[in-house]
Amino acid sequence: MVRKYERMSGRQSWNEEEMAKAVAAVVSGKMGYKLAARTFHIPRSTLQRRASKVRYQQPDEPKPLMGHYRRVFTENQEKDLVGYIKSMEKYFMGVSRRDIRELAFQYAEDNNLNHPFDVNTRMAGEDWVRNFLKRNPELLHKSEKDYELEPVNFDQFYHFMCQSS
């Protein structure tokens, strides 16, 4: 995602409340498609699709993402990535943004995911890691207790390193 994104299109400029009112008006027979679309300022084709789903009781599909950008990992994969980063922080006293970028690239490669990451540097982009940290703020906020030095158990450290290799 671009750092200073300004939306250029007027696509999906309507809100869900207005759409629900328009669908209710069309399904109840109070208005036709054209009149409801003009009254509630929504696209007629979208109103037709939504009204037919209500009439025929079809479940709503997940909301499509807007724009050119797409997420690389599913929510479960991101949770796995966050858990792995937290466990690394537990053993190594912190992970840098660069480490997260390298880890994301490696995770995408290991799972054979289609990704836009740089193959030459073998890292995810700076924008990706910034948005990843926005989606997972628990990785940013650390209490004073987290910064206290604790003795490292080298057996656990060695076992962890052998597992990750």
UniProtKB/TrEMBL annotation:
<dbReference type="Pfam" id="PF03221">
    <property type="entry name" value="HTH_Tnp_Tc5"/>
</dbReference>
<keyword id="KW-0539">Nucleus</keyword>
<dbReference type="GO" id="GO:0005634">
    <property type="term" value="C:nucleus"/>
</dbReference>
<protein>
    <recommendedName>
        <fullName>HTH CENPB-type domain-containing protein</fullName>
    </recommendedName>
</protein>
<feature type="domain" description="HTH CENPB-type">
    <location>
        <begin position="65"/>
        <end position="142"/>
    </location>
</feature>
<feature type="domain" description="HTH psq-type">
    <location>
        <begin position="1"/>
        <end position="57"/>
    </location>
</feature>
<dbReference type="InterPro" id="IPR006600">
    <property type="entry name" value="HTH_CenpB_DNA-bd_dom"/>
</dbReference>
<dbReference type="Pfam" id="PF05225">
    <property type="entry name" value="HTH_psq"/>
</dbReference>
<dbReference type="InterPro" id="IPR007889">
    <property type="entry name" value="HTH_Psq"/>
</dbReference>
<dbReference type="InterPro" id="IPR009057">
    <property type="entry name" value="Homeodomain-like_sf"/>
</dbReference>
<dbReference type="GO" id="GO:0003677">
    <property type="term" value="F:DNA binding"/>
</dbReference>
<feature type="DNA-binding region" description="H-T-H motif">
    <location>
        <begin position="33"/>
        <end position="53"/>
    </location>
</feature>
<keyword id="KW-0238">DNA-binding</keyword>
